[in-house]
Design brief:
- With 164 residues, this protein is α/β, with parallel strands linked by helices.
- The protein has one domain: Phosphoglycerate mutase-like (Rossmann fold), CATH 3.40.50.1240.
- It is 29% helix and 20% strand.
- It contains 4 helices and 6 strands, in the order E-H-E-H-E-H-E-H-E-E.
- Strands 3-2-4-1-5-6 form a 6-stranded mixed beta sheet, sandwiched between helices.
- Strand 2, helix 2 and strand 3 form a beta-alpha-beta unit.
- It is globular.
């Protein structure tokens, strides 16, 4: 059984309109939501073996909060340039290359691609993944290269305002 967590980056700052999109940091809410969502996963005993992130500042910072909660060093977050505003097919390509020893991977990326990809995975659909949302599926496979063609089972969907 393989498990996939899709995590949209936490809320980013728009304070500096001259800043490049790639370099936008998290805002105060983003800095609150990311560790809170990671703590929820831990509370629910969701284990994560691997962290893959877009190298954009807001996505990587979100991944760092999750990694810290799981006692994983920043250097162990794999950065994948293709996860910066990807088309859905890019996710399948990246997933097919994940080491098979990984049972559960968390992928940190951006809208609209992450929502489009989530909606390709199973019958459960989301209109729009909010910032720091987590969409999770399971696939009864032994190798990540089988993920694209395998039947996927909806596992859960959570987002920061889900408990408000």
């Amino acid at each position: 059984m393989k498990k996939l967590l899709l995590v949209r980056h936490a809320k980013s700052s728009w304070n500096d309109m001259s800043q490049q999109d790639f370099d936008r940091p998290l805002n105060d809410r983003g800095h609150r939501d990311a560790p809170r969502m990671a703590a929820r996963l831990l509370k629910d005993e969701v284990s994560i073996d691997s962290f893959l992130s877009s190298p954009a500042v807001r996505a990587l910072t979100t991944a760092e909060y999750f990694a810290k909660a799981y006692d994983v060093k920043k250097k162990n977050i794999l950065q994948e340039a293709a996860l910066y505003h990807p088309e859905p097919e890019v996710f399948f390509d990246i997933i097919s290359r994940i080491d098979d020893s990984t049972k559960c991977v968390a992928i940190f990326s951006h809208n609209p691609g992450i929502t489009e990809f989530a909606n390709k995975l199973c019958a459960t659909r989301v209109d729009d993944m909010p910032t720091c949302a987590i969409f999770a599926v399971k696939a009864d496979i032994g190798h990540w290269k089988e993920f694209k063609s395998a039947a996927k089972e909806f596992w859960f969907f959570d987002f920061p305002k889900n408990d408000d």
